[in-house]
Amino acid sequence: MSKFLDRFSSLKPEIDTGFSSTASGRFLNENGMPNVRRKGLNPFEKYSWYHVMINLNSWKFITFLILGYIFTNIIFAFIYYAIGIDHLTGIDHSVLLNELMDVFFFSSQTFTTVGYGRIAPVGFLASLVATFEAFLGLLFFAIATGLFYARFSRPRAFLKFSKNALIAPYQDGSALMVRVAPFKNNLLTSAEVIITVAISNRDQSDSQTEFFILKTELPKINILVLNWTVVHKIDEDSPFYGDVNELLKTANVEIFTQIRAFDEGFASTVIQRTSYITEEIIVGAKFLPMFEPSTDRETTILNLDKIGDYEKVNLP
Amino acid sequence: MSKFLDRFSSLKPEIDTGFSSTASGRFLNENGMPNVRRKGLNPFEKYSWYHVMINLNSWKFITFLILGYIFTNIIFAFIYYAIGIDHLTGIDHSVLLNELMDVFFFSSQTFTTVGYGRIAPVGFLASLVATFEAFLGLLFFAIATGLFYARFSRPRAFLKFSKNALIAPYQDGSALMVRVAPFKNNLLTSAEVIITVAISNRDQSDSQTEFFILKTELPKINILVLNWTVVHKIDEDSPFYGDVNELLKTANVEIFTQIRAFDEGFASTVIQRTSYITEEIIVGAKFLPMFEPSTDRETTILNLDKIGDYEKVNLP
Amino acid sequence: MSKFLDRFSSLKPEIDTGFSSTASGRFLNENGMPNVRRKGLNPFEKYSWYHVMINLNSWKFITFLILGYIFTNIIFAFIYYAIGIDHLTGIDHSVLLNELMDVFFFSSQTFTTVGYGRIAPVGFLASLVATFEAFLGLLFFAIATGLFYARFSRPRAFLKFSKNALIAPYQDGSALMVRVAPFKNNLLTSAEVIITVAISNRDQSDSQTEFFILKTELPKINILVLNWTVVHKIDEDSPFYGDVNELLKTANVEIFTQIRAFDEGFASTVIQRTSYITEEIIVGAKFLPMFEPSTDRETTILNLDKIGDYEKVNLP
Amino acid sequence: MSKFLDRFSSLKPEIDTGFSSTASGRFLNENGMPNVRRKGLNPFEKYSWYHVMINLNSWKFITFLILGYIFTNIIFAFIYYAIGIDHLTGIDHSVLLNELMDVFFFSSQTFTTVGYGRIAPVGFLASLVATFEAFLGLLFFAIATGLFYARFSRPRAFLKFSKNALIAPYQDGSALMVRVAPFKNNLLTSAEVIITVAISNRDQSDSQTEFFILKTELPKINILVLNWTVVHKIDEDSPFYGDVNELLKTANVEIFTQIRAFDEGFASTVIQRTSYITEEIIVGAKFLPMFEPSTDRETTILNLDKIGDYEKVNLP
């Protein structure tokens, strides 16, 4: 923590980032979630199942629902079978497999409240279990369809970040630049950015880390329509002041970028963040334009696949 | 960018509007959405289907739902037919058309979980497909009814803006005025306005644009009950200072007005915006009163069809 | 507007209240909604049906739902009857009334997706209508149950205000006091109060009104647990400074009180307001305590029926 | 209120805590809800049933739903029985008990809209009641499943607080410290803490209480990932300045800690609070580290069972 820390002596490190200066490894994972493992709790305490379900990959979520549906029906099929299939009308008694099939399908017809009635309960116990199963089915589908809709309608920012953070020429000197753009048909207003940087010595045995909030030229935007190049001017108050190549060689640098905005479609505040590690910071480069007028000059075309495009330039 | 830019030399253009000074065409469309086309993404990435569905016109939305419902039932009808209609009880076998009809109606009765049971599955495959279709139906209607209700209950500001922005006499000089009023039985509190103006040379080849946030006499209102005339006083700090007719002749001007407020019925923040282009700015006019006491003087009557009414007046 | 306006010469009237100084009648009705009638719009534009339904009295809302349900079923009953009851199985053909009854009940069993199947569609047209009715039923109940639940779970502040505003002794002089208390098992945090007063001459022909925001001794409270006596100290900056009895005799005074807070159960911001007119302002009175220790001194008892209790006192 | 109050003479007590200085007993209960009983209202006014249901223990909530379901079905069973079971087809007339059972199950099949149709209404009255019951069932399950899902998806902070507040060495002097950590897979951003302390004389007959908001070294954190040790430095502006052991012996002290943050999964603001009473304040102790690097040093492990771990130390 020697050479580059000298440079920081006049800077006030931030202490309100929520990360500890003695934490290990990358701070944020690529998915924007913190790189922390929790211990000392049982699984029921440890997880918010709502968050698990909301963040699950779509295919896994659908598979989970279908498996839950099939599993519940199998359980009830066995209960009806145990009670006795003579408590159900319309069962095909030809072979055992048909009997099992029919109790399974009776269960699913009850659980979903379809209730064709071709198979129907007649005895007390089967009727009672069916009464309970229909009730349970309504609760099950409350959660299942609630989550299904919540995943569909969940407030998200829908922002694309550039793959790299650049050290680019800016005014008389240079600036750290990150580019972000909305990529869907939503509309973000009152967008705010916070950029934090974590700097620690390359040498693993000394994992002390300093955090700095980087001042940006334009921390707030009224309506986020086109791309937004977030600019942190590198002056004597910046931790990147001086020989930035040397800094990136001797230290692990991680840049956290968080955008907070209001989305009208969702009528809610949305947040998105990403982080850039040392290898993702490119010294001496500037972003290429990513929008252009349409040929009729009546609208502007935003090329989202160019969000990360840059060219090498010399720094002053 | 010659004549009128001179006047701006002492003004600080705003850079945090989210629009680029090199974008083309009108900035906001009439519907308040930005005039931008996105490229470089596949359609699945490009759209937030929630936003598409929420913003769709009512008739299109209903048609979309009905077509989705019919289409799904046709698919399942063919599956049941392919499996074999002998796996279903109660089918009218008289003619092929009747058979097709009955599998279609069986499908719809399963998909909606009505399940009369006149037609019911007996074989394994048909039962299995029906089990799956009922499950799918519940998920389909979770999205369909969720969106249907979300469209009905979505937080919106319900504001009417005047068709024109006026340059009206104000105090000793003049002011830019825009009028807005709530037009429904909702109640907006803590309403805030932001007015931004974009000014660019008429000459298309030089599309450089400057943005200014206009100071307003009263940027915040506690309870928005009657009309609100938003007033931007034209003094030496205003981009409209000087010969405003000349400005409107030589430059493209677009005025963005955004209102943000809290609605108690929705218990949510709501936002609405509009924009006025050069042709919609009227120099030398003032708004006519749009409310009057009731005949018994016990209440106030707000005439919403008069929101844009103005009369020509001479500016000082 | 003579005598008492002199006193106001040194005060800056508020202009951001949202009310016009030339509006007529009481500003807020007793229910906290503004006293304004809207004109110039057709009923579809004029109302947010969501707000209408959310604010409807419970009995009216339930009646509305039931009538909508019965009415829809009658419509569909006639459609099925027009199509021909031979397209339905299980109809009791004994008398016309029984036929009508059975199509009505078939309709309701379809609309709610109960679908017993005792009566079931067999012909193409009846099946098609039933297919559509089940779909419509799901949409109808999406809105009906959505609203039913929204009414039940809608974020509200649940505050009780004192019936009167008092002019009470305070420190060396006097203060305007209003009392408010939460009356349900919810918990309000970060509660803020805004008090505005509207003062206009008694003489109806001169309906010019001045608005003032009243400074309060304690405009914000962290956790609103017991009663909150909102205190506006009457000093030379207050519109009530001087002979307050004279003011109330010669002017119409209306005091608006609005509380805004965060409720954790709803996880939402909630707002409630009320207004006090001249007759509801009592000069020379102070609120009586409304809470007391429990007999075991282990908890505090809040007497909500005493929220408005006061005793007459002499002002200094 | 003698000895320790002298010390407070230079401090400004807070008056905006929402608690009265004359309230009795503990201010917040262990569950974070205020220790207040409400009187003077009937039960319908007194409770927000939404809050009751949302805060109910899970087992009680499920039991309540099941009892409501069974109870409603029993009521309707008796209605159908009173109408006459000859108005229902498919009833098992063998013995009275079977008849009663069958009307009960018919009711449940109607209420849940399963509608097998084995038992189905034929007469006018039974059909009418069934029509109404299916409608009621949809409303009942709107509330039941709405609450069920709301409980599952309700925005909560999921924070664990340390069991004790410590007076620990800090810089040259000492500080009051409280530790908090997120314990689930949610992500809190923009977390803010407010610490308030209530101090009253041990002597019950003199229950005057003073409130102070404690300044913290770091009142806000950007991303709350690891534990957060909230630090209130004890200097001459602190109510704990001087002989803290003496203070805790002669006075009842209660420390309220409230955290407010934004959760992205819920897209909502969340709040959690706790309070520490005199016995839970430990003088001369410091928290032990609760996180450590993983063995591969690639991530950080947070031990949530160590949240309250401390060791005794000497204060300077």
TrEMBL record, chains A, B, C, D:
GO CC list: monoatomic ion channel complex; plasma membrane
Annotated InterPro entries: Ig_E-set, IRK_C, K_chnl_dom, K_chnl_inward-rec_Kir, K_chnl_inward-rec_Kir_cyto
Keyword terms of this UniProt record: Ion channel, Ion transport, Membrane, Potassium, Potassium transport, Transmembrane, Transmembrane helix, Transport, Voltage-gated channel
SUPFAM superfamilies referenced in this protein's UniProt entry, alphabetically: E set domains, Voltage-gated potassium channels
Ranges annotated as spanning the membrane: 61-83, 124-150
Pfam families on file: Ion_trans_2, IRK_C
UniProt domain Inward rectifier potassium channel C-terminal: residue ranges: 159-314
Keyword Ion transport: yes
Compartment(s) of residence: Membrane
Gene3D superfamilies cross-referenced by the UniProt entry: 1.10.287.70, G protein-activated inward rectifier potassium channel 1 (2.60.40.1400)
All copies of domain Potassium channel, residue ranges: 71-150
GO biological process per UniProt: potassium ion import across plasma membrane; regulation of monoatomic ion transmembrane transport
Domain of life of the organism encoding this protein: Bacteria
Protein name per the record: Inward rectifier potassium channel
Upper classification of the organism: Bacteria, Pseudomonadati, Bacteroidota, Flavobacteriia, Flavobacteriales
